[in-house]
Structures are given as structure tokens and as C-alpha cells.
Amino acid sequence: MALGSAPAAAASAAACSASAGPHQKQVEKFLGLKVDGKQSTADCKKIRAFQNEHGITPALGYAGPLTWRTMNTMLEQRAAGKNPNKAGKCPVDKGRIACVDLTRQLSWIQDGKKLAFGPVPVRTGKDGDETRTGAKKIYWRNIDHVSSIYKVKMPYAQFFDGGQAFHSVTKSVWNPPGSAGCVNMRHADAKAYWKRLKNGDDVYVYGRKPGT
After folding, report:
1. CA dist 134 to 93, 101, 130, 159, 194, Å?
2. Residue 70 in domain
């Protein structure tokens, strides 16, 4: 370690924004803080903890657009409840189908009109590497897949469009900016999808991810 790097790192870690961000009140409300639009030390620490948990950088406790966008996506996911297909955008005439709503970053499995599993939060493709929309089918599955391009593990991989697949990740599914096109899932959710889906099952992707 280079001389002086530890103090510099400590100083950086201790940095906390004293400024109120453009989404201060929304962020305060989301985190259960006093909603006054004014930044406090307590506000900054709570905001920064959220940023660190989900890999939002720089984690300075500033209530900026990316932090609020992440929180707003969470609110939309919660609002979906147990009726994620209320708007009828995912087909209900296909039998078993895995639906992916890019706008809300949600996925679920339907049996016709019946909700079979979910909804669960997902992390889809970032700007320039968007998860492609439209009707797909699962065509290849590999429980212990390792990407030949990115050299990373993709547990419970179920491919449905070129190199794009459902698979488990260890990082937060709310971690921006997103994947390289795959539908990233929490481990338990990816495992549940693995048990419920098979080759030939339908997948339908629609909407547009915030920030793309």
C-alpha cells in the first residue's frame, strides 16, 4: 500500500454531503426521516447507507436523481402487490409465461391469467445494453453457467434471447446502471424460476427501464 493512501481513503469514507439534494424531501419520506427538505448529519448517514447497500456512487449521502430513481422504482414495485399484470400488458393466452416489465424492473410467472410466482425485483440491461423487448422462448438452461464473455458466474441461467438470460447475481438487483442485457435476479428468485420454467416456455419482455 502506498504511503498516505490509508488516510486518504479514510477521509473519503468520512465525507458526507452537507447539501440538500434536488430530491431531498422524497428521499427523506422514503427513508422515514423528518421531511423538511433540509440536509442533516442524520439524513446524510441514512442516505449514504442506502447508497452503499445498493452500489449507488458516489455514496456521499446526497439526495440526487439516481438515488431517488432507485427509490421510486422500489415504490412502484411495492405498489404492484400481487397483481403485477393489472394493465394486461403480458399475454395471458400462452399458458406458462415469464413476464418482464422493464419500466418497473419487475418479473413474475403466470399460468394463463393466474399468478404462479412473484412478482420479484430484477436488474435489466443498462443504457446501450438494454434487455430486448418482445416475445421470446427459453431455449437453453445451465445451472452453473459461466459467461465466456465477461468471465463471471451466472447461476441458474435460462437463456431466452441470444446471450440474454435470467440468472442469479450476488450484488443488489437495484444496483445501477444495470446488467449487460441479462435479467439479474436474487439467488432465491433465480432458483425458483429454475424450478418452475423449462425449455420452450414463453418469455415476454416489455416497457423501458428508467435511465435508458
Report:
1. 15, 11, 12, 14, 21
2. yes
28 in a structural domain: yes
Contact 176, 211 (CB under 8 A): yes
Flag whether 105 is in a domain: yes
Verify that 186 and 153 share a domain, yes or no: yes
The CA distance from 67 to 50, in Å, is: 8
Q: Grid coordinates in use for 68?
A: 431517488
pLDDT digits (tens, 9 = 90+) for 114-169: 999 999 999 999 999 999 999 999 999 999 877 777 777 889 999 999 999 999 99
* Residues 185 and 165 sit within 8 Å (Cβ to Cβ): no
Q: Is residue 115 part of a domain?
A: yes
| Residues tagged active-site | 167, 182
